[in-house]
Amino acid sequence: MLSAEALAAALPITPREAEVLAHVAAGMTNLQVARELSISVRTVIKHLEHVYRKLGVPSRAAASALAFQTIGEGPGHGATDAPEGP
What pTM did the predictor assign? Predict the structure, then answer.
């Protein structure tokens, strides 16, 4: 999972918004994020609305992709496309 601290430092979002984004980028649903952070689903939704606006993205997928690009983790980072040799 992405580091919320790294996201908060690298992106123009609050530490709590970064926590929500890190969980969303890990594939969690709004309900799962709410339970993990002990907040309501409505609060998760509001945090995500703020994240989308601040990052200029239209969706959770776009926000997640930007988070991975910013931190430099995830698919395509540190892995090669070439198959392993014998």
Answer: 0.84
